[in-house]
Amino acid sequence: MGLKQVQLFVRGRVQGVFFRASTQREAKRLGLTGWVKNRSDGSVEVLAEGEEDELKELIAWANRGPSAARVERVDVRWRGFSGDFFDFRITD
User: Fold this and answer.
1) Catalytic positions, please?
2) Which of 28, 43, 53, 76 counts the highest number of beta carbons within 10 A?
3) pLDDT category, 92, cuts 50, 70, 90?
4) Active site located where?
């Protein structure tokens, strides 16, 4: 399906529940690159690149998150692939 980029804004109880570390682990398992970070409004932002099918798997996972998380909503923005990332990192 081709290389793409997706930006996610994950809302709910998603900070202090290992959401970033779990997202990094899942993204690496899927072979994705990019980053994940906490936002000041209590949400988590994810920017990921890779094959569209794997990005869709990450989106599905983000709607559940790790067991301690309570995801209320995931806003998804598809973008063009940039190739700017070489791994998947936790920022901030």
Assistant:
1) 20, 38
2) 43
3) confident
4) 20, 38
14/79 Cα distance (integer angstroms): 24
pLDDT tens digit string along 15-48? 999 999 999 999 999 999 999 999 999 999 999 9
Bridge-based pairing of strands 44-51 and 33-38 is antiparallel
Residue 1, pLDDT > 90, answer: no
**Running DSSP on this structure, what letter comes out for residue 77?**
E
Burial class (CB in 10 A: 0-12, 13-18, 19+), 89: middle
Q: In the predicted model, what is the mean pLDDT of residues 59-71?
A: 97
Collapsing DSSP to helix, strand or coil, 15 comes out as coil
Report all structural domains of the chain as residue ranges with CATH numbers, in order of start. Answer: 3-80 (3.30.70.100)
Cα-Cα-Cα-Cα dihedral of 28, 50, 57, 67, to 10°?
30
